Amino acid sequence: MMKPEPAVHAAGQDLETAALRWATLAILLGTFVGNLGVSIANVALPSIAQDLHAQAAQAIWVVNAYQLAMVVAVLPLASVGEKFGYKRVFMAGLFVFTLASLLCAVAPNLEALVAARVLQGLGGACVSTIVPALLRAVFPPRLVGAGIGYLALTVAVSAAIGPSVAAAVLSHASWRWLFGLNLPLALIAIVLAARILPRSRPLARSFDLGGAVLNAVTLTLFVIGASELGDAAQRGLAALLLVLGCLSALLLVRHQRGRAAPLLPLDLLRIPVLRLSTGTSIASYTAQTVALLALPFLLITEMGKSAAATGLLMTPWPLVIVVVAPLSGKLADRFDSERIGALGLALFTLGLATLALLPAAPSDMDIVWRVTLCGIGFGLFQTPNNRLLLTSAPPERSGAAGGLMTMARMVGMTGGAALATVMLDLYGTRGAGTALGIAAGVAGLGLLVAVLRMRQGPSAAPA
């Protein structure tokens, strides 16, 4: 039987074993629901377009609206979490996500569906931004890496099974049921969170509305500009949007300077280990996104593999992350996170380089061992690096650190998608191999940053 909500102290909550398990389940179930909602929507786009009589270019906004809402909301919600308490924002996000899922399921047209997806993205941003701070709050300092490993495991599992779940549902029912799947899981997460998650002490600070507006404008310009780079006809507009985004970013930085707890966490980026860990995170997600987008074109178009065979050949990548990520979290709690992360990034870089150098007619095993090496390297790197990102910040800035962790992932994925799109647009499918080489180079740059981080000396998490 679950115990009443535990008390709070400044540095976190050393929950009893049973309470820690229930709290972890609530946090990870909320994460699972949010990530499953992303992966199943991608597969459902053709069915949605057909049912709602929309063009493919219009239907893609079902995905874009969710991602854009998440990107824009991450940093403001991190600030809101510190101001009002992580539990409150996490639960509010689950409520919003659940309501939005229901609205998606009954949307009468594409416009209503896109609007509901914006709302769903805001709810998802609440959850993904606050989860790292909640994990730091409920896990004892010696086990924070294990908690982040469980988070990585949850994200990998939801991403891996999402397409299969969507395919199974769509073969028997309407796409609307895909959004209905979220409802029972989200309700269970809400009940568990309300009952067992500890309250964090809200911090007395005002909400920076001007900073939030500048943040929204900056990120919207960058995301839309990056997404248009792959269209040769829109490349001039994309360049203009990116230039405007840079100008808006400069205004944002100027606006945030001198603030004690800025929305844009400039105070955290002054901490060398945290700054360098953010850089390695952006590089790794950029490299992974480029590779995962380019590899199918290389295997199908250039090497003649079938779509089904390509899916099977790429499956080891997420599968080994499921195994390696929680293991690397436990290793990071016991040993040097910097060295473990650098080793993982070195293996990831090597795996990408070997993929870029695939022979013209490789055997399936030639492909599988290289893909597996990429998954092992990324899984070994990701959790220790995220542990450093989270624990290098003062406890009262855990929300901002979690937001920075999420933002680094989104920036890397957005940049990686833009880079892969440009390469494929410029060189066609022949550019897939070159894109893999670029991915290896980006990962190599991240490795150099990781080595520089090691020279800073062992990091010590704040109490």
From TrEMBL:
The name under which this protein is listed is MFS transporter
Q: Which organism is it from?
A: Massilia suwonensis
Give start and end of each Major facilitator superfamily (MFS) profile domain.
23-458
Q: Which UniProt keywords apply?
A: Cell membrane, Membrane, Transmembrane, Transmembrane helix, Transport
Q: What compartments host this protein?
A: Cell membrane
Question: What main location does UniProt list?
Answer: membrane
- What Pfam family is a match, any one? MFS_1
Statement: the UniProt record of this protein carries the keyword Cell membrane: yes
Q: For this UniProt entry, which segments traverse the membrane?
A: 20-44, 56-77, 89-108, 114-135, 147-171, 177-197, 209-226, 232-253, 273-300, 306-328, 340-361, 367-385, 406-427, 433-452
The membrane-topology field of this record reads: Multi-pass membrane protein
